[in-house]
Design brief:
five-stranded mixed β-sheet
Amino acid sequence: MNAYGLLLALLAACAGSPSTSEAEIDPNDTTIPIEDVATYPQPGTSLPGSVSFAPNGGPILFLDSADGSLTRQLYAFDEETGVRRQVVEPPGGGVTEKGLSLDEQLRRERLRERGLGITQYRWSSEGERMLIPIRGELYVQDGVEGELRLIVAKEAGDALYPQFSRDGEQLAFVRDDEVYVVSSAGGEPRQITSGARGTGKTHGLAEFVAQEEMSRQQGFWWSRDGQNIAFTLVDETHIPTYRIEHQGKQDPTHEDHGYPFAGSENAKVKLAVVGALGGEPVWMDLTASGLIEPEYLARVHWMHDGSLIAEVQDRAQMRLDLVRLDPRTGRGSIVLTETSEVWINLHHIFHTFEDGSFLWASERTGFRHLYIIGADGEVTRQLTDGKWMVDGLTAVDIDNRLVYFMGTRDGVTEQHLYSVPLAGGEIRKITDEPGMHG
């Protein structure tokens, strides 16, 4: 059956079905009303999300919609009492996209975000402070019982891609193509980068290719001690403008974007480090990778010793270099190189240790597996092996010396949670039910 025939069959199956607003729902009726097929959230997709444990043994937090709509609030679930309660609801409702800036609309589009209200929250790495961005404004709450405080209002423009410093004492964000920092206690944000606004360039934002094709949404990174921020300079001024028309409206509009068509030039991306209080940036030498013109900046990681590791790729994406950079001088050297005759699959599996070594995933055997890489770039030990894939890193438990990861060890049609000792050894399967776990 072709797509048109499938659509006709679907319409025929749904014809005459009462809408959920006009009739009681029959639990034995498997028919999906046509109104539900054409609206969001789609049938069966309004589920709790962004589940996390509050620090220090607190309740389980998650985002959910009380009425099954797109509008979400933040809830807490107490394991002992079984009580679910609302922790935060969006100030002013937050139930419409009307009034969102173009930058915020594009951010939501990149993330495929259709939700309204509270669509994200995150804990500081150290401490019990929550960051809750809502419609371009930044709110902070100390713990589950704390009071929601507005830290950055949107009068001067939307605050994009906010991040806590590790201790939660500072917030960084991008506004009008420049990076700002503000205390989590409140106060006036200070601009720590300059020179991009109004030029067609950006500071602290990921370019189109990084967001859409490389799964890198952010364009700046806090150092572990909160003293410095690494940030990107993206130059798209040489890329032709592509116009997107929004037709079918009473007042048609359009957007103009720099779009790198296949075979043409990509955005030019540089990396620099600047102090959290501002000052002159230090530009990193990404050509230290040995690639004459590194085409893509894929990932950036701060190490325990204060150095940076940047993952850079060639345009063919058949070589990936990990380059260690000195933030004081910008000089760098290659730590590790991955090559492929076909394609380098990027991933988010990286964890740094105090001795300079790091956890890394490689497909050098033909299957993605976990390795401990020494500070010198040599493999210290391989943690997983076999004809199956490690799909993602879930957590590193330093106290108990364990790595938790998702993988296909029990078959390609299933994904399970496993753990393996950091010292190497037996892999333990944690999830039991057949299927795809997450």
